[in-house]
Design a protein that fits this description.
Helix content: 25-40%
Number of helices: 8
Order of helices and strands: EHEHHEEHEEEEEEHEEHHH
Distance between the termini: 46 Å
Strand order of the largest sheet: 1-2-10-7-12-5-4-3
CATH class: Mainly Beta
Low-confidence stretches: 332-336
Radius of gyration: 20 Å
Largest sheet: 8 strands, mixed
Number of domains: 1
CATH topology: Jelly Rolls
Mean pLDDT: 90
Structural class: alpha+beta
CATH superfamily: B-lactam Antibiotic, Isopenicillin N Synthase, Chain
C-alpha cells in the first residue's frame, strides 16, 4: 500500500515563550523523531519578500557579473575557494546555481587556516543601489542563527536535558552556510542520471544533509519530496510564510540516531525556482563526538572527541559527492 501522507508538525515561534513552551518542546522532539522535518511559523524579523528580492537581484544579472564572485575553480583570477558563487554545471543531475557566505571571522583568529574553508570570507558583488544585498543577507543570517538556537533549546527541553546543551558546539564562530539558490528548468534533454525510478526529472538528487540542521525558505514553490519509512517519495506541500526545518547527519549521529536525517530531493517543476537554505553548522573545532542520548541516560557509546570541520569536509567531498563540492582541492590530508 502506498504511503500518501507525510505529516509535518508546525511550530509557532510566536508561542515558544508562552505557558505552552514545554508542550511545543515535546512537539519538536516528536517531529524530529518521526519525520525529521518541521514547519516553522512566525519567525520574528524574517523578511520573505526581501529574500525573494535578493534572489532576483543577483540571479537576474548576466553571467559576467556573477563571474566576479565565482569560485576560483571557475575563474582562476579569484581567490575564493569555498564561498561565493557557483554556476549551473551542464550534464549534472543537480541543476542549480548559488551564492553563499558565512559569518565573518577575524583574520587573526587561530582557526583561520588554509585548510579551513568554512571561515573563508565571501566575495560580495558590487551593488548598484537598487537593493542592499550584503547588509540584508548578513542581517538575515543572524535572524536564522538565532532561530536555530531557539529550536535547539526547545529540542533539549523536550528531551529532558539542559536547555543549553547544544550551545557550546556553535559558539561565536559557527561554520554555518547561508545560500541563495536558483534552479533553472531543463532547456535541453536532462542526463539519464536526472531521471527518477518513477519517471520524474530531478534538479537535486536524493540526499541527506551533512550539517546540523537546515532552515529552508522555499517561497511558494513545489518540487520538494521526502522519502517515507516505507521508501515512498511524497511531496511536501508549500507553506507560504513558513520555514521548512530538517536535521542533518551531524545532529542525527550526536543523538545516537534518535532524530532522523530524512532523505529528500527536488523535482523539476518546469519553471524557474528559487530557494534560500540556511545550513546551521557547529564551529570548526566543535566536538561532535558527544552522544547526547548517552549524556542524558548514562547508557550508550563512549564519548570520543571528533572535530566537526575535518569530519564534514571529508564527508562532503569524498562520500556525498555533491557537485558543488567535488571541485574543492584535495582534502585527504585534513586531520581531526
Amino acid at each position: 500500500m502506498t504511503d500518501c501522507r507525510f505529516d509535518v508538525p508546525v511550530i509557532d515561534m510566536s508561542q515558544i515563550y508562552s505557558e505552552n513552551r514545554k508542550t511545543i518542546a515535546k512537539q519538536v522532539v516528536v517531529g524530529l523523531e518521526n519525520t525529521g522535518f518541521l514547519f516553522i511559523d512566525n519567525v520574528e524579523n524574517l523578511d520573505y519578500d526581501g529574500l525573494y528580492k535578493s534572489c532576483k537581484w543577483f540571479f537576474d544579472k548576466p553571467f559576467e557579473f556573477k563571474r566576479t564572485v565565482i569560485r576560483k575553480f571557475w575563474n582562476s583570477e579569484n581567490k575564493n575557494i569555498y564561498r561565493g558563487y557557483f554556476p549551473v554545471v551542464e550534464g549534472e543531475p543537480s541543476r542549480k546555481e548559488g551564492f553563499e557566505f558565512s559569518r565573518d571571522v577575524k583574520e587573526n583568529d587561530p582557526a583561520v587556516t588554509d585548510d579551513n574553508w568554512f571561515y573563508e570570507k565571501a566575495p560580495w558583488p558590487e551593488e548598484d543601489g537598487t537593493f542592499p544585498f550584503k547588509a540584508f543577507l548578513q542581517a538575515t543570517y543572524e535572524t536564522l542563527h538565532k532561530t536555530g538556537l531557539e529550536l535547539l533549546h526547545l529540542a533539549a527541553i523536550g528531551l529532558g536535558i539542559d536547555e543549553h546543551s547544544f550551545d557550546d558546539i556553535f559558539g561565536d564562530r559557527p561554520c554555518s552556510t547561508f545560500r541563495i539558490m536558483h534552479y533553472p528548468p531543463w532547456t535541453t534533454a536532462p542526463p539519464q542520471s536526472a531521471y527518477t525510478e518513477d519517471g520524474k526529472v530531478l534538479i537535486t538528487p536524493s540526499h541527506t544533509d551533512s550539517n546540523f540542521l537546515t532552515l529552508l525558505t522555499r517561497f511558494n514553490y513545489g518540487g520538494l519530496e521526502v522519502q517515507t519509512d516505507s521508501g515512498e517519495w511524497i511531496e511536501v506541500d508549500p507553506r507560504p510564510g513558513s520555514l521548512v526545518m530538517n536535521i542533518g547527519d551531524t545532529f542525527s549521529r550526536m543523538m545516537g540516531g534518535r532524530f532522523k536525517a530524512t532523505r529528500h530531493r527536488v523535482i523539476d517543476i518546469h519553471e524557474d525556482r528559487y530557494a534560500v537554505p540556511f545550513f546551521m553548522s557547529p564551529r570548526y573545532d566543535g566536538d561532535i563526538g558527544v552522544n547526547f542520548m548517552t549524556k542524558a541516560t548514562g547508557v550508550g557509546e563512549e564519548h570520543q572527541v571528533e572535530h566537526y570541520g575535518p569530519w564534514v569536509l571529508n564527508v562532503m567531498k569524498y562520500q556525498k559527492k555533491y557537485f558543488e563540492y567535488r571541485v574543492l582541492p584535495d582534502i585527504k590530508s585534513l586531520k581531526a
